[in-house]
Amino acid sequence: MKTFSLLCLMFFFPSTCDSKFTFPLKIYTGNFNSSVDIDFSSLEKNESSSTNELSLATDPSGKVNFLQMVNNLQGDSGRGYYIEMLLGTPSQTLNILVDTGSSNFAVAGAPDPYITHFFNSKLSSSYHSSGMDVSVRYTQGNWVGKLGTDIVAIPKGPNGTITINVATILQSENFFLPRVNWQGILGLAYKMLARPDSSVEPFFDSLVRQTGIPDMFSLQMCGAGLSASSTSDPLGGGLVMGGIEPTLYKGSIWYTPIKEEWYYQVEVLKLEVGSQNLNLDCQEYNTDKAIVDSGTTLLRLPHNVFNAVVDAIIATSLIQQFSSGFWTGTTLACWTKGETQWSIFPKISIYLRGMNASQSFRITIMPQLYIQLVADVDNSLECYRFGITSSTSGLVIGATVMEGFYVTFDRAQKKVGFAVSTCAEKSGSPLSEIGGPFLASDVSSNCAKTPAIQEPVLWIISYALMGLCAFILIILVILLLVPCRHGDDAGGGVTDESSLIHHRFK
What we know:
The protein is mainly beta.
């Protein structure tokens, strides 16, 4: 599924690693189971509150209590961040993966070797089947199931229950993976991505419509620096539904426009490794699309951008001896415990267009976020993977980056916001930074590719083509059934053999 989209990687570790470098770095070759004066006042940002009060503390409906949402997530980037939900009547408790890169709410509806339990729709008196089949394919993994409706409540979310569309997963491939502790997925993107079509109202649309909360949510993901081999899932942050909680971020929130309402598509202007600008055409960064996706583990970069980033890291950090497998994800880098050489790696900055198109801001992650701990070996070595990978489906700002920030999804105002997360630090050192504003006059006014044709337009085109095909088939059938003679030649005409249609339409 994407890259956790699903990209949970499991590792097999031997008891020793052979040293290949002069500094305390070792490489483990393992088997993986599976990025002039100017007035800047118009660049939109939101100053954080100086108090600990809730943003919507006076909400008269009583539907929003942000404090109870502050720690409602568990997990980490490698296994995903999930929230507890109560589905059906009587309620069945499930952990649900939070995914801003898809739009279906789906839960396991049958046993699977990698999950502990599933939702039994037959035991829920409030479940109603729609009779529709549904399937969703992700970058990695897929599932098929049945669509229906039921009621759901979120213990650490908005008060009350709502009726939602839910898919029960009956078969899947590479979707549920070993050692994950969730049994479903909560797609928080727009209805254009909903399956089988956009008439299926996504979860968050239903939540906003039925409860009246503001059409926005925000995410804090706090698993940075945690080992993927950990057997327990710690408190992993918060999914705040209906607003922004000031205690979860520091400084200001910087906003970038949502380019298209399907994924949360944004516009990337440039990337820097250390202080080195990659100097690529800005459309390279937005090849296919650039999106913000909590369900993707890594920072995914288009092929040319990925190669440029790796070359810049190698040149900047003077570590040419690194095995190429480390950069491609087939080997791990291991250091003696406590001697990780963070200083040899550069920080990485992503420049996003501001709400004022002539300005930009940058979000920066430190190497502790993209050089990711995956396991301890013999309690003496710490082994890490490269948290950036090449992509054929666009640039994806996944959990590797999002763990450094408090990310807001303001759907009403069509903007995504970034602020430094209060949990983005390790041993007192910050893991992320935000800077700006900057002039964007040196890049194209539109770096994003032309958006895909909207789904309703595609349906219109499809129906028109189907109508044309039906018309042609009717004409052919008439020609087959009505004799055709030329003068008095009884032996002429169209035979069955000469009338065969060899190319059928599906």
